[in-house]
Amino acid sequence: MGTASDSTRHTQKVDQLFGAIAARYDLVNDIQSLGLHRVWKRRVVSLANFSEGETGLDLCCGTGDIAIGLAKRGGALVGMDLNRPMLQQAAARLAKRGGQCVRLAQADALNLPLGNHSLDLVTIGYGLRNLGSMEDGLREITRVLKPGGRLLILDFGKPANRLLRSAYYLYLAWILPVFGWLCCGNASAYAYILDSLKKYPAQKGVAAKLDLLSYKSVQIIDIMGGTMSIHVAIKQ
Question: What are phi and psi of 212, to 5 degrees?
């Protein structure tokens, strides 16, 4: 079990990495996923069923893909991220798209500046895996969700098929550092993905942790053979 100082060091490392690649983050994601990451994020937005009169949080919002999609559905939305350069990218994109319904805020996912039971919806895309403590992050999310509130998590997965999983890991080990170097001059920024994925409990592990937090319904949606996944959970 990690210590508080381990969590702090991890958070600082991730913040530095994402700060270094923020300006080209969307470009690299488009190249490495052939644009499919945008399709998966739109699916999260669709599954969220966010509507007028609701309050929502897009946590670890990055450059704002999911927040922008949710803003079109109505409701009051906050996009939060610890990384200032990522928030600056999100703000620029929102300004171009007229996303006045989204408020952006810099905050630590492990210490959310929100009241208990204050939100109808929390989404987190490619962020849970990067938290200093996934368990503490999930507890914070659960704290701010209302009973009956929805949580949607989009992240890398671990394919159940052993051959597919091995090929997937090989891809991440060899290709992603190349993308990081060519597009950002920082190979470690994308090499980090594989290391974080190996430590991440992925589909079944995240579902088990949500069960322990008393969510009454936890659905796992596998994408591309389980290389990506979406969790949809309803808080009791």
Answer: -65, -25
Taken in order of first residue, the domains within the chain and their CATH numbers are 4-159+201-235 (3.40.50.150)
Q: From 157, 87, 82, 155, select the one nearest 125 (Cα to Cα).
A: 155
CA 226 to CA 147: how far, in whole Å? 29
Provide DSSP, 162-186: HHHHHHHHHHHHHHHHHHHHHHHS-
CB 206 within 8 A of CB 41: no
Give residue 25's pLDDT. 81
Locate tokens 């690649």: which residue?
21
Q: Which helix (H) or strand (E) holds 226?
A: none
User: What is the mean predicted confidence (pLDDT) over 75-96?
Assistant: 93
- HEC letters along 43-101: HHHHHHCCCCCCEEEEECCCCCHHHHHHHCCCCEEEEEECCHHHHHHHHHHHHHHCCCC
From the list 173, 127, 117, the residue with the least C-alpha distance to 153 is 127
Return d(Cα 142, Cα 214) in angstroms, integer. 9
What pLDDT score does 4 carry?
A: 64
Query: SS3 for 127?
Result: coil
The three-state secondary structure class of 222 is strand
Cα separation, 67 vs 29, in Å, equals 17
pLDDT at 133: 94
Least Cα distance to 145 among 125, 168, 118 occurs for 118
* pTM (predicted TM-score): 0.92
